[in-house]
Design brief:
Number of helices: 16
Helix content: 40-55%
Structural class: alpha/beta
Order of helices and strands: EHEEHHEEHHEHEHEHHEHEHEHEHEHHH
Oligomer: single chain
Distance between the termini: 11 Å
Radius of gyration: 21 Å
Number of strands: 13
Mean pLDDT: 89
Low-confidence stretches: 55-65
């Protein structure tokens, strides 16, 4: 079996899709099931180790400015992507008998068998959380996928059902391969993380944590409402720490975060480097994830695998991820979240039970299992 695996998503800022691409690519390489794997970035082949050497520094001013300028010009953005895909297709002609896997929605034209990973349909369910140019681009992309992909991989049963219902895809054409948390996420003793947390003026077990891009569908408004109703002593002892990239349509949320930061019970760290993130998560007393929509929901899994109690919303794929290891709370009930957060911070018996259940649930997921299920999907379309 010969494979082309696109690694364009492995870049700054490293998102859930970027981590999926990196971890799955490494696991596929480890599997030993391929005569050749071509790791493809842009319009050229890269060596396997290179996919882990992505830059974690912010791109330079000129590149960043150019990128944002292009995004303000939707037609230009679409033209740039089409041009890149055209060049890529041209360079891929010599790999015509290889299977092509696009792990981040986009499907480069390829005369061989094609498979694509669709992580979510948030642009359908929450269009207001995306800029207009992206909505047009994603709708065009999904129509292309529906017509030309030999198979679609997705990362939860919820998203599989949504793809089948919205696009009328045959059930056998949509396969689920669950994501996993990196082995970097594990329980740690306080002394192991102290120096890293000192950089953020945090102490082990001394904060609640949310990790994710700050954007409307993450439902941070409800989380701020709920946390703001906690006893003042609880909020000051365990401030709410928010880590994530500055996302779309989040100015109002950031205004609230700034105001509450002045009151001393909210901390916004922005984007945390990959090396620090496992330490930040393992040091949390409680992990909070009230998201309205997730294709999978990797951060709660990373927290469970780190031995941290978790609270999530009852929406979309999150109940699949946490199983019976964490409460799934109504995403619009701030009072319920307030009461659950207070219990999660102060009830030691509940915390110990939640940690045990979380570690057991997290063990169900692994990147080697994801790779094995992905390879099975490859074999189905190569039969």
């Amino acid at each position: 079996m010969k494979l082309i695996f696109n690694v364009d998503a492995v870049k700054f800022p490293i998102t859930g899709v970027g981590r999926y691409t990196y971890e799955l690519g490494c696991a596929l390489e480890r599997s030993g099931c391929f005569d050749d794997i071509v790791f493809w970035r842009g319009i050229s082949r890269v060596k396997c180790p290179d996919i882990g050497n992505y830059k974690l520094a912010e791109p330079g001013w000129t590149l960043r400015t150019l990128k944002h300028t292009i995004k303000r010009l939707p037609r230009t953005m679409a033209a740039v992507l089409n041009l890149q895909q055209g060049f890529s297709a041209l360079m891929l002609r010599k790999y015509g008998d290889y299977l092509y896997h696009g792990p981040n929605f986009y499907l480069t034209p390829h005369k061989g068998p094609k498979i694509v990973t669709v992580h979510d349909l948030s642009f359908i369910t929450f269009p207001d959380s995306h800029p207009d140019y992206r909505l047009r681009l994603m709708n065009e992309t999904m129509e292309r996928i529906r017509k030309s992909a030999d198979m679609i991989i997705t990362v939860s049963e919820y998203t599989r059902s949504q793809i089948i219902d919205v696009y009328g895809c045959p059930k056998e054409k949509v396969q689920v391969t669950y994501e996993a948390a990196s082995k970097d996420f594990r329980p740690r003793q306080g002394h192991e993380i102290l120096s890293s947390l000192n950089k953020y003026d945090l102490r082990p077990g001394g904060y609640s944590l949310f990790v994710g891009t700050v954007e409307p569908r993450k439902n941070l408004g409800l989380l701020l409402d709920a946390y703001g109703c906690l006893d003042d002593k609880v909020r000051k002892r365990w401030p709410l720490v928010i880590s994530g990239y500055y996302g779309w349509k989040s100015d109002k949320i950031h205004q609230r975060i700034k105001a509450f930061s002045k009151e001393g019970w909210v901390r916004y760290l922005g984007f945390v480097p990959r090396n620090d993130l496992p330490l930040l998560i393992s040091g949390a007393a409680l992990f909070l994830y009230p998201s309205l929509y997730e294709g999978f929901g990797l951060p709660p899994l990373e927290a469970m695998q780190s031995g941290v109690p978790v609270l999530v919303s009852d929406r979309t794929s999150l109940p699949e991820v946490v199983g019976n290891a964490a409460p799934t709370l109504a995403a619009d009930d701030a009072e319920l979240w307030t009461n659950s957060i207070q219990k999660g911070l102060e009830d030691h018996d509940w915390r110990n039970d939640s940690i045990k259940k979380g570690l057991k649930q997290a063990a169900f997921f692994s990147w080697d299992r994801c790779a094995s299920e992905t390879i099975s999907a490859y074999q189905l379309i190569l039969q």
